[in-house]
Amino acid sequence: xxxxxxxxxxxxxxxxxxxxxxxxxxxxxxxxxxxxxxxxxxxxxxxxxxxxxxxxxxxxxxxxxxxxxxxxxxxxxxxxxxxxxxxxxxxxxxxxxxxxxxxxxxxxxxxxxxxxxxxxxxxxxxxxxxxxxxxxxxxxxxxxxxxxxxxxxxxxxxxxxxxxxxxxxxxxxxxxxxxxxxxxxxxxxxxxxxxxxxxxxxxxxxxxxxxxxxxxxxxxxxxxxxxxxxxxxxxxxxxxxxxxxxxxxxxxxxxxxxxxxxxxxxxx
Length: 268
Ligand SMILES: Nc1ncnc2c1ncn2[C@@H]1O[C@H](COP(=O)(O)OP(=O)(O)OP(=O)(O)O)[C@@H](O)[C@H]1O
Prior knowledge:
binds adenosine-5'-triphosphate, alpha/beta
């Protein structure tokens, strides 16, 4: 893909977490290399799948891209601007364009807020008027397939799939160009997963939004991604177009990961 089509570029990204050892008087501190020299790009309207086993650093990469974690070193550029260099205040204009959808919508949605409050929170932070908020909520509920009367409901009054739709509506409120989807289907019933996956697919087609789609579910990633990156112990082992990666994995770790996927045919 052409270089000028790049939306997010990550260069040699590292994130080390301090880990203390011994009692508090013995202050020897070592570092956990959660992300260790990761480089990739996400293009406009593209989905990059990020797979790997638990603890390989996927969520930390997502948080570093969004600057929810400040990287230890490396670059994260959005439309050519390195976000790592910016102060929190300088980052503010970029925040609306970079959003996140979490694994467990129940944990990420304030239980004391109605759906209306949840969706309009980011809008109000960006000084939208009451009329703008009302109109946008109506529009967003429609986009994610929820009925207008649901605006008055609280998170516990939604089903799991509906709650994730609410999370998607909130992420879309400020018209983002890039969304980190961090295991967005893992907390949902299998029967509901396909619906939410199709919704994300439709939104990409409609609005041209790009996704970094984090999952340990290789079949879900295969369905939604244009390209796939495989992470292991904080590093990217292989990054390739979806079909090439699944049909002809080059790295032994990718081969091992794919061969560990159960095949639904008992004869195989
Ligand atoms: N805030 C933190 N402080 C210290 N260590 C952390 C922190 N966040 C993550 N880690 C560690 O960094 C490593 C990578 O974690 P991360 O959550 O990014 O992995 P992951 O691939 O997303 O795993 P999972 O699929 O289980 O969510 C893990 O060893 C984790 O314990």
